[in-house]
Amino acid sequence: MTDKLIQIFADELMLDPTDLNDDTNPDNTEEWDSLAAMRLVAAIEGAFDVRLSTAEIMKMRSIGIVRTVLAEKGVTL
Amino acid sequence: MELADLKRKWRALQKGGAGATPDVSIGVASSFTIDPLTPYLGAFLLSHGYARPAIGLADYNQIVQSCLSPGVAFGGVDPDVIILAWRLEDIAPSHTPAAMHEASELILSAVDALQRSFSGTIILCTPPRPALPSTRLVRFSHPEVEVALWHEASSRLIETFSGRDRMYFVDLEELRAALGPGAQDERKQFLYRQPYTEDYYTELAQLLARIIRARKFEAKKCLVLDCDNTLWGGVIGEDGVGGIQLGEDFPGSAFRRFQQQIKSLADSGVFIALNSKNNPEDVWEVFDSHDSMVLKREDISAAQINWRPKSENLKEIAATLNIGVNSLVFVDDNPFEISEVSTHLPDVQCLRVPEELSELPRVLRENAHLFDRLVITEDDLQRVARMQGEMKRQSLSQQLTAEEFLAQLGLKVYIYEPIPSDLARVTQLINKTNQFNTRTNRFSREEIDAFLATPGNRLFCMSVADKFGDYGLVGVAMLSREGDAYEFVNLLMSCRVLGRGVETTLIAHSAAVATQDGASKLRGVYSPTPKNAMVTDLYERHGFARATASPEGETVWEMALPSDLSPPPFVQLLTDHPA
What we know:
Helix content of chain A is 53%, strand content 0%. By secondary structure, chain A is an all-alpha fold.
């Protein structure tokens, strides 16, 4: 499944979208370091026109959680 | 290509890993986390035509070490360009004035060492003003000590390094101020110790990429404009001066803004020319009598207003300005005209007026880098004024014989030894003159300094003025002494003063000085290149005898001193500095 969110992660982490799913997280993905996290925040905010709080940013420790956070903010994916 | 696509392309290139040799290599050393810059810088370099840029980052806060060992600092990248960025508050974490002062002095000497050892380009970012804790009570009686230190550090930096060869500046404070609150992101500062927004890195990357690009690409010299629906809305031949759209209200305001952009290019030394299918009287009437015209007749250096194909007109414009057609940028609203030009003159860069007129000012903003020159000399700034003089000069030359014409010009030729502020122009002339150049010996700024420091060597600058204007510094003669002979190491001149006997003046004066210094011979060498045929017989014409010739076509010429060579009667020779 290559949805918009997965594509963003694939771009920013420089990985193949087929290697990514909602369980992808910083612990099982070497590329997801703090610099990547910073780029991801910028890319997600840009793509979905939202602004994330520091609490939300700190909570986003898997693609699935990011999806939930965005859904809570009323973003339809 | 959009920025997002370019970033994707850049990332794909990174993923491809090591392979082909990069076509440009950039090393970045910074006192703060600058990693977010990389994809933007990579993307802009790709958009400027680099195929395989490489960017290496030095470890966090390793500026001094990077300056001292640039070969190893950038993670395997052997840089052509080194970018240095720091903030005063990072390099001295204790924030005491003494520590900040000492740290900034340390960086200064490290950069100085780098500039002496490194043969590539250095882009030095001047530091942003340090952020002060906002809760501290403000003292109005005198500036905060950190701010005072920042002023001192910035001005020391600029004093020390401005004008050095291959060294360019980006002002981080100006960038931050331009973006205002959009420059910083408190969340990132707290979460990642990285204060700036993506917008900030985008702008910074764009500036850096422009500098990197300008090292390699020759700047465009002339912006050629269509008139109807390009400089104003509507068709002058049908709508009349009162009917065209230009002024305070849209869409006239978009054209006015566009003209303001053009005017500012003209003020920095870009030629502005017109290429329009119209009656000339109609177009000039707009220039002379429309209240909202920002551009005036005197801003236009060349004009072709007629019904001929636009590509023909462009060739004519290039010839008038004595530049190549590849130095032209052409703007038109009509896709037919653009394709006619692109077909016949593929070297002319064409820009099209967008259908959505609010986007018109963006066209020039996004292409301003085409005109980038790394060093803007005094000469560049006077170029436009000089061309207007040239137009008048040409109209006078049509009425007189050549001798009468020259006598009327009131030519003044200044020949003098350079003062430091002349040397940027001297370097430029030595390195870009192709046609009137006897040996085409290129010298870097350092090599010129070394030449001047060598006893027995002489370097003369030549500036020319006439009653229509000032041509600026247009000629250079470099002489070295060998026994009883002086030899021209270089003898070159800009083509814009051809045919006025000024070269005779330069050679005659060199001969006179050599005689004064006790030399008994003046020697000249002609080394042929594909472009300098016009000086094949220069020495012969001035009474030199051929001494030797090599199979490569190089010829050596000698003249016994003292000689009776003298400046032409219509030239006034002055040996003081023209300033």
